[in-house]
């Protein structure tokens, strides 16, 4: 698939997502939290395009509101994981020696846990909340960022221009910030886009296992998990959020592909 | 199904051993049901949970047992007499009761079994009931003759027989000595029940197998007593944690019975021609607990305002879909003591609620309501409570915990409010006892009221139903006035069965009973 | 070679130690305790105290930890709190189930993904490529349990081709067990096909650009030979690394799929034990999972030269 088609489809999907999230903060067809016990589990109709859920709430409104929650949770997680991961990774790669060995041992230990289970444990400790999810998933994904950054830093710090910067008397920190980190951005950016998708998936998996973003705030993940008992009778309940997650991930993956190709065509093999 | 060889043909075959063997090998009737988690052990009343109790109830029996209406009836005892001072119970045993090893039950076996329960080494769950802080101490257990056993207590109590009958106490089962080794270590239940324990494949299934030496009581089946003959050859309890999978199993014919359905599952199954449903009210109780020591909720006006903001019948209607009724009383609807007084609870009244809130100076401070997803109807009820309270201007925030974490908060009394579910209590005094107590020493208790506490104590001492009813009525009025919690509803037990299953009946206690149940091909 | 192996093994020890400490602490940080869960809403403090003492949960944490480490050193993971079973056999039994699903699913996924990726790369930017990449990306974007449930509905309930509940171990009936495995394996395989195809395609594109491919073509080597002899082996190496990563993580992490299909696997055991606060089992499972992850990665690294001719020559 050409880079252009990638970016186009991916861009359209993500623009839709962003637009929906923004629109939902201003307007939704119905109040996404308002229950209507007389209109429970109604199939899609002219009034409720995506039907209503088990409390008679409008699914379309919840999908829209869920877009912003899901996007915010995913963004916050990615930002946190990338920030901490870059810090940890660059410290580890730049100073090397015992610092590196210690940090990497901890990092590897974290990597050795299945991410979703690590997140589950952390969620139970700090409680199921949007904040808890962000923290738990960031902790689960941070080690991969740290690894990638460390790798880049290790290979970059020996390059001539860094050496030159050091000879010129610039401090280590300055060289790190000025020259090394910017060069590590490309792989991290690619990783971050996939991570955004993972968070969406992980959030729904956590909801499925019983702990996710607490209601009544809708997220696609907890809507999908809550729809499970109704799969046979009210399939629209699971199809709407399931499709939204799948389409968003598709968009993210396509954008990620084109981002990768643009940032570094040689990286196409990662 | 493989139900060919039942009926008279089967009886004939039973006369000749070889024929019996051939028959049972070819056409064993197997009833397949589901547990949501594996049983804990085969040792009744010690390492147990509700699943364990449910399986074990097919294998062992006690002197007395609960009937369908939660009254206590005779089981292995034929009858009993209570002395005038209310302290000595003399049990006449049934004749010709056989243990699974073929031995005939006599008074000596009963004495041995009861004394084993009271031995601390047995680690009987209900031992503390007969300790210093319990209902009464047991002073003496005596075999009067081969068919008579007398038990003497240190004080009269209304709770002696109900405690013996409690399923979680292992029904104080009369077990044969062979159940334990020479060192007293548990081997397996050699009981008197209509089924023997079969193979237990941990994490997969546990079987109970028909006990051919069983002689049933003559009165109709009721609760855990009455006529309890096994009809099917074997019942297999499959361990299937996931309820959607269990439902799928029922539909595909891999399971014959699944209990404790969720409401949405019931909706799905209602329309299926191959499935029949059994819906019975249960004793479990769902409600909102308030921490009366919380800086905000210590004000009874705010607690009452929340109660008045709720339309309990509508909540029940939605979360239980017409299978259960609203009830603001601590006594379950099915209890013989639940009368007209208990029917008077809270009526939704938003104007009054707002007035109370204004008087209490409430200005939208958030109230954290803990709930969990293990019980979907508790969770759904919490969502509706939040929504209804919002209409009265009460700002409730939900906090979803996993069940273990919620239990921890419950036991420490560390919460503002929580949506909680209490399991079944089979005696009205116990229904109140689970809620009441001094918070200083028992932080898990919801209702801390010294006067009501004294009434509770009285209700445990007297066996006179009129006196007890009067006490429970007065306690109910105070319970509603104090509003330490809002009882919303008692649950219902939803069981789905393949059409081939005949003779099943649910009851107030959420445990399946597979005696008297047959499979029609 | 042996020296390298030992060195690599030695470097995993600190990781596993950190895992052990972290696991022990994390599990106990979780609010709630196993005794409360076992006793439920009817727990009275006296019973709680007795049970805690029986289980050794009343001792100070450091003592409990040291005791656990001491037993661990001789390969004893302790006994489950909820049912008293020894933890190690329990884990091994459950692991077999997970391992079969994961290995079969990943093997199937690899067999589909590698050729698909190769073809997509070979016809880069054509309609075929578009379909393959689009399909792969779509597969990878579907939440696994959603896919699992859809399959369950379709094949188990609507078509009734496959059993939907229960489980037969392979030791009892191979055919029976295989039937139960079809849906979970299919679900997992479909997701992994998505991941691996994209990887294989990217790797193949890289190889196709290399000079020796151009050379081979220039020399008139038939196209299928170029693909089979030159591109495939070289493109497989990086895919192999990813397969390792995937395997390492899946072996402990398919709780969701095991939940959907009610399989008594390791992930399910772990999640159930977390909810029951069954400390020894949670600790055992996580430690075991970490060990598997480390070992799988080690094996993958050791096998790498087999698949990458360039490394082998160097």
What does this structure look like?
With 270 residues, chain A is mainly α. Chain A is 72% helix and 0% strand. Chain A has nine helices and no strands. Chain B has 521 residues and is an alpha+beta fold. Chain B contains 15 helices and 18 strands. Chain B has helices at residues 8-15, 17-27, 50-56, 107-118, 160-165, 243-252, 263-270, 300-309, 312-320, 350-360, 376-391, 403-412, 428-433, 450-461, 465-482; strands spanning 30-35, 64-66, 72-74, 77-82, 88-93, 138-145, 148-153, 195-201, 205-210, 234-239, 257-258, 275-290, 367-372, 396-401, 417-422, 485-498, 501-502, 518-519. In chain B, strand 8 and strand 9 form a beta hairpin. In chain B, helix 1 packs across helix 2, helix 9 (312-320) packs antiparallel against helix 11 and helix 14 packs antiparallel against helix 15. The model of chain B is unreliable at 1-25 (pLDDT under 50). Chain C contains 14 helices and no strands. In chain C, 79% of the residues lie in helices and 0% in strands.
Instruction: Tell me the radius of gyration of chain B.
Output: 24 Å
Structural class of chain C: mainly alpha
Q: State the helix count of chain C.
A: 14
The H-and-E topology of chain C, N to C, reads as HHHHHHHHHHHHHH
Q: Which class of the largest domain in chain B in CATH terms? A: Alpha Beta
Sum up the overall morphology of chain B in one term. Answer: globular
Q: What's the Cα radius of gyration of chain C? A: 24 Å
Structural class of chain B: alpha+beta
Ends apart, CA distance between termini of chain C: 15 Å
Any idea what the CATH superfamily of the largest domain in chain B is called? Periplasmic binding protein-like II
Contiguous helical run count of chain B: 15
The order of strands across the largest sheet of chain B is 11-16-12-15-13-14
> Helix share of residues of chain C?
over 70%
């Amino acid at each position: 698939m050409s880079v252009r088609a990638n970016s186009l489809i991916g861009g359209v999907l993500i623009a839709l997502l962003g637009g929906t999230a923004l629109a939902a903060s201003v307007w939704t067809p119905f109040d996404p939290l308002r229950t209507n016990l007389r209109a429970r589990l109604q199939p899609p109709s002219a009034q409720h395009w995506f039907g209503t859920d088990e409390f008679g709430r409008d699914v379309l409104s919840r999908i829209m509101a869920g877009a912003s929650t899901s996007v915010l949770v995913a963004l916050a997680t990615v930002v946190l994981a990338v920030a901490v991961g870059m810090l940890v990774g660059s410290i580890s790669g730049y100073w090397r020696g015992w610092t590196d060995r210690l940090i990497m041992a901890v990092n590897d230990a974290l990597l050795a846990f299945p991410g979703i289970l690590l997140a589950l444990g952390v969620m139970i400790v700090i409680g199921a909340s949007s904040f808890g999810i962000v923290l738990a998933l960031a902790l689960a994904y941070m080690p991969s960022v740290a690894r990638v950054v460390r790798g880049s830093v290790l290979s970059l710090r020996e390059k001539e221009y860094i050496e030159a910067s050091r000879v010129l008397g610039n401090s280590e920190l300055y060289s790190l910030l000025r020259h090394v980190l910017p060069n590590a951005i490309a792989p991290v950016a690619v990783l971050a886009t996939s991570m955004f998708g993972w968070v969406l998936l992980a959030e729904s998996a956590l909801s499925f296992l019983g702990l996710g973003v607490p209601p009544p705030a809708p997220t696609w993940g907890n809507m999908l998990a809550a729809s499970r008992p109704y799969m046979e009778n009210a399939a629209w309940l699971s199809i709407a959020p399931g499709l939204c997650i799948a389409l968003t991930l598709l968009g993210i993956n396509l954008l990620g592909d084109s981002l990768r190709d643009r940032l570094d065509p040689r990286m196409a093999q990662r | 199904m493989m139900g060919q060889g039942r009926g008279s043909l089967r009886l004939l075959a039973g006369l000749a051993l070889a024929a019996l063997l051939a028959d049972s090998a070819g056409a064993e009737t197997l009833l397949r049901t589901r547990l949501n988690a594996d049983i804990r052990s085969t040792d009744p009343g010690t390492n147990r949970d509700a699943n364990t109790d449910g399986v074990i109830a097919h294998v062992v029996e006690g002197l007395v047992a609960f009937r369908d209406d939660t009254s206590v009836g005779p089981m292995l005892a034929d009858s009993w007499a209570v002395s005038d001072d209310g302290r000595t119970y003399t049990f006449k045993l049934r004749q010709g009761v056989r243990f699974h090893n073929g031995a005939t039950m006599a008074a000596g076996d009963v004495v041995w079994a009861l004394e084993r329960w009271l031995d601390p080494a047995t680690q009987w769950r209900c031992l503390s009931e007969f300790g210093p802080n319990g209902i009464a101490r047991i002073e003496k257990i005596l075999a009067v003759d081969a068919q008579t056993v007398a038990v003497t207590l240190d004080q009269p109590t209304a709770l002696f027989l109900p405690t013996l009958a409690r399923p979680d106490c292992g029904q104080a089962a009369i077990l044969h000595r062979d159940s334990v080794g020479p060192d007293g270590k548990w081997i397996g239940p050699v009981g008197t029940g209509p089924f023997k324990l079969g193979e237990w494949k941990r994490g997969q299934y546990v079987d109970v197998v028909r006990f051919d030496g069983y002689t049933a009581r003559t009165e109709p089946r009721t609760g855990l007593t009455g006529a309890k003959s096994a009809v099917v050859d074997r019942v297999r309890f499959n361990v299937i944690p996931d309820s959607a999978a269990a439902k799928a199993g029922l539909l595909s014919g891999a399971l014959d019975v699944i209990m404790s359905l969720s409401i949405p599952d019931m909706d799905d199954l209602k329309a299926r021609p191959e499935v029949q449903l059994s819906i019975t009210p249960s004793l479990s109780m769902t409600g909102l607990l308030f921490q009366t020591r919380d800086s905000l909720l210590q004000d009874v006006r705010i607690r009452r305002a929340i109660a008045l903001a709720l339309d309990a019948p509508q909540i029940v209607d939605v979360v239980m879909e017409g299978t259960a009724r609203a009830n603001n009383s601590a006594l379950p609807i099915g209890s013989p003591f639940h009368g007209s007084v208990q029917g008077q609870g809270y009526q939704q009244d938003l104007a009054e609620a707002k007035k109370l809130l204004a008087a209490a100076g409430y200005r939208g401070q958030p109230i954290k309501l803990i709930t969990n997803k293990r019980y979907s109807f508790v969770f759904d009820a919490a969502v509706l409570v939040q929504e209804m309270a919002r209409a009265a201007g009460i700002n409730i925030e939900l906090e979803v915990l996993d069940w273990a974490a919620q239990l921890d908060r419950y036991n420490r009394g560390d919460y503002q409010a929580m949506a909680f579910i209490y399991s079944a209590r089979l005696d009205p005094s116990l229904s109140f006892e689970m809620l009441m107590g001094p918070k200083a020493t028992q932080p898990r208790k919801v209702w801390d009221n010294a006067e009501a506490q004294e009434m509770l104590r009285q209700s445990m001492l007297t066996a006179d139903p009129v006196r007890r009813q009067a006490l429970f009525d007065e306690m109910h009025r105070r319970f509603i006035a104090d509003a330490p919690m809002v009882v919303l509803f008692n649950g219902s037990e939803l069981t789905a069965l393949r059409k081939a299953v005949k003779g099943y009946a649910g009851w107030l206690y959420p445990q399946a009973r597979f005696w008297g149940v047959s499979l029609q091909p | 070679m042996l020296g390298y192996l030992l060195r690599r093994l030695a470097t995993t020890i600190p990781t596993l130690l950190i895992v052990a400490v972290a696991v022990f602490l994390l599990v106990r940080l979780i609010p709630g305790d196993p005794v409360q869960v076992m006793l439920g809403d009817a727990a009275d403090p006296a019973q709680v105290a007795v049970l805690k003492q029986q289980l050794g949960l009343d001792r100070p944490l450091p003592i409990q930890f040291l005791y656990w480490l001491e037993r661990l050193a001789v390969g004893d993971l302790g006994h489950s709190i909820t049912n008293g079973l020894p933890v190690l056999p329990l884990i091994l039994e459950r692991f077999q189930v997970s391992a079969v699903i994961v290995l079969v699913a990943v093997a199937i996924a690899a067999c589909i993904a590698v050729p698909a990726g190769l073809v997509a790369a070979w016809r880069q930017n054509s309609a075929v490529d578009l379909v393959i990449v689009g399909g792969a990306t779509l597969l990878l974007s579907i939440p696994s349990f959603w896919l699992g449930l859809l399959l369950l509905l379709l094949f188990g309930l609507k078509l009734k081709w496959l059993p939907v509940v229960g489980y037969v171990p392979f030791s009892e009936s191979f055919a029976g067990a295989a039937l139960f495995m079809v849906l979970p394996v299919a679900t997992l395989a479909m997701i992994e096909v998505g991941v691996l195809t994209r990887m294989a395609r990217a790797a193949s594109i890289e190889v196709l650009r290399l000079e020796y491919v151009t050379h081979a073509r220039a020399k008139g080597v038939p196209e299928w030979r170029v693909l089979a002899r030159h591109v495939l082996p070289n493109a497989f190496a990086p895919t192999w690394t990813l397969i390792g990563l995937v395997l390492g993580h899946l072996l402990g992490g398919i709780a969701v799929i095991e939940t959907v299909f009610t399989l008594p696997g390791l992930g399910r055991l772990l999640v159930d034990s977390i909810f029951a606060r069954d400390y020894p089992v949670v600790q055992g499972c996580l430690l075991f999972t970490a060990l598997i992850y480390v070992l799988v990665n080690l094996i993958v690294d050791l096998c790498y030269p087999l698949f990458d001719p360039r490394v082998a020559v160097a």
